[in-house]
Amino acid sequence: MDKNAGLAERFEEDRTRLRAVAYRMLGSVSEADDAVQEAWLRVSRADTSDVQNLSGWLTTVVSRVCLNMLRSREHRREEPLDVLVPDAAPGHEEGRDPEQEALLADSVGVAMLVVLDTLTPAERLAFVLHDMFAVSFDDIGVMLERSPAAARQLASRARRRVKGGAAVADADLARKRRVVEAFLAATRGGDFEALVALLDPDVVLRADKAVVPTPEPLVILGAHTVAKGAMAATGRARFTGLALIDGAVGLAMAPRGRLFLVLAFTITDGRITEIDVIADPNRLGQLKIAVLDD
After folding, report:
1. How much of the chain exceeds pLDDT 70, in percent?
2. Which of 141, 230, 293, 294 could serve as a FRET partner for 95 with CA atoms 20 to 30 Å apart?
3. What is the set of domains in the chain, with CATH numbers?
């Protein structure tokens, strides 16, 4: 009993870190919590008498649970996206805490979660554990049943995907980023006047048929009309973040770490003149999304 109590106490000391590992591996608060709970069930039944580095061993257990969950997820990729998208109104996320989910997504970066979701389970594990938690490739190789060199190659391949290849040579990138950041902040904060100020009076918003249940793509004209539409998406903006989309600054929405839609902007003289909202899975799959450098 004392031994189990001591193990439980040590597990609780590591819980925050283990949950952070699981969240970055899975991109979902509820799945991360499930992974940590499953890890505890395994740990509580294991013989730890020969374990010298308990924290490292706990990380290994959680990582293996997450790896199994990621591999299982690959077999259900066709899950309808509408079940993954939280309702705009708070409190409709099937028992999950939307504020906590949004805060964690912000802390990691929505674009990072989106890119991680495109990696294979092995690539994701190698990159997350090495680049985010400084786990050695020797240990990662053991988890993946591969050599350290193979684990290093997996992480390198994932890193290239995260960075999106070569740096974007756009002298206006920083300025456009500020505009998109301001758009997201105004949408999240429900600041109608700030949104209107960012939009060209003749702004055009186009949304494909997957965004809204209409027989034809939606086209909205004018700053006030577009701003009103953005106000209706305030709740969902919590799960939205900046990303490099085909080399330009845009926004990606990814509830539970799964890409649902992107907003691509045309910005002229500091104002947004066009917004393309893309949710069609085929179109999303053709986009090159990467993480913006800080």
Report:
1. 86
2. 230
3. 2-163 (1.20.140.160), 173-290 (3.10.450.50)
Mean pLDDT of 235-257: 89
- Residue 94 backbone phi and psi in degrees, to 5: 55, 50
- Mapping DSSP to helix (H, G, I), strand (E, B) and coil, where does residue 197 land? helix
Contacting residues for 200 by C-beta, under 8 A, at least 6 apart: 223, 268, 271, 272, 273
pLDDT over threshold 70, residue 261: yes
The model's confidence at residue 271, banded by pLDDT at 50, 70 and 90, is very high
| Residues in contact with 69: Cβ distance below 8 Å, sequence separation at least 6, in sequence order | 26, 31, 34, 35
Q: Which of 294, 264, 271, 263 is nearest to 174 (CA)?
A: 294
Could you say which DSSP state residue 27 is in? S
Which distant-in-sequence residues (6+ apart) come within 8 Å of 196 by Cβ? 223, 224, 227
